[in-house]
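User: hey, got a sec? need Putative pterin-4-alpha-carbinolamine dehydratase folded
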Amino acid sequence: MSELAQEKCQACRGDAPQVTPEERDTYLADLPQWQIVERDGIMQLERVFTFRNFQQALAFTNRVGEIAEAAGHHPALLTEWGKVTVTWWSHEMKGLHKNDFILAARTDEVAA
Ligand SMILES: C[C@H](O)[C@H](O)[C@H]1CNC2=NC(N)=NC(=O)C2=N1
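Assistant: Yep! Here you go:
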């Protein structure tokens, strides 16, 4: 398990600190397949996972759902045939918190 994946999540709070550009680069180094995208002025962390069929994509989607529920922090999930797009951000603070990087690392683990 990567070190990031084992870190504890903080509660989702509007006044929680967004990651600094330096922190962002440090965490991204552990998440080479993820990219930062900006939508409606909100920074988000996104990765596309590919699978052999819809059933595998759906099973993965449910595993991500389980880690989200366990953490109380929830991604956007787009499940398609052979493909799932996972997008993490902190809705309350309209940006990226360390939680998002931790959950991205956990997402990588349930994909393996
Ligand atoms: C009350 C509840 O815990 C909050 O609304 C949580 C739920 N899941 C969440 N998930 C994400 N990604 N961001 C949030 O701000 C958020 N808020």
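Quick note: The CA atoms of residues 49 and 84 lie 5 Å apart. Let me know if you need anything else on Putative pterin-4-alpha-carbinolamine dehydratase.
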